[in-house]
Batch of 3 targets.
Target 1
Amino acid sequence: MLGGTTAQSFGFDISTYKIDSLESITYENIPLWILNLSVALTRFVQTLTLTMNATDEQKDCISELFGLTDQYLKLLHNTQLDNFLPESKYVHAYTAFMQDKDTKWIDEIKDTDY
């Protein structure tokens, strides 16, 4: 997990890092996908609590991470690349469940091979 401030080593503050929208997945932009997903996942984990009633900050992090994993999985489907981030399916289903509480996501979580 990335540190929260520049003092914690990566040279940027994840709370202010702007996640760019990537329109495709290519060999050239795989590092950007990994960085963007890592930043979104770190923000999410930093606000995570074991409650079903998320705060506004948690909802923003959940929405950001869900949107990014959703886009990643949809774009990946249109390539010949293997999923280089297998946990993305689990994170996608988990954040989807956190948003809408639909139990179909629980089945998808159980079916992930992560």
Note: Helices lie at 30-47, 56-77, 87-100, 104-111.
Target 2
Amino acid sequence: MKSIPGCCFIFLLLSVLIPKETEAAGLDPNLVKQILKLAKQYGWVIAKKTVYAKCKTKGVPRGIKCPKDVVGIGPSPERAVEATKLYAVMLGNKQCNQFVDTTDCKTGKFTAV
């Protein structure tokens, strides 16, 4: 299991527990389920107004395994986008963080938890 950086981990520890009903403005319900599954798997917690980000990987050379879509959560849009790089590394090769296109990410806030 790979670790998450201290800043995101501390923020997530200070948040409230995830109830069954969670909404994110403008976020695909399947992606919400994916984020909640990851949160449960890694012991993350999501608070109301936690920011999410969804980015894509771009320009991945052959031989490097990276997910096409990556997600992240954090206390701000910038931190959520940075968390997408961690998610890419968790699911793919350690070089995947270099191929996350952070210039075209969708961000928003969880509106209910």
Note: The chain has three helices and four strands.
Target 3
Amino acid sequence: MCHKYPDFVSTTLNKKEDIDFNKFPALKVVLYSIYYRLYNPSWDKSLSDVNDILIMTAAPYVDVIITEKYQADIFDKISRLINKLSNVEIHKLSKIRSN
């Protein structure tokens, strides 16, 4: 955010204002996805996890998401924490493939 919006960050820091992270739902989705995926000690981490996490940034702005099972489970947890996600439908890729 500092590199893309330096004026916003500089102004906010100079005014010593709190940042309302509710205004950045994509950032919240990314942070929760990182938490639930990467900080799970039993999860076997891989480079593709980064892509799975970044894809979720669109979640607050779409009606339907199709993803793999583990990320769908994470999305279920996140959607309880971020109101903007309450109407987003989540579909597991494995169910679509089996049909």
Note: Helices lie at 6-15, 25-38, 48-55, 69-79, 93-98.
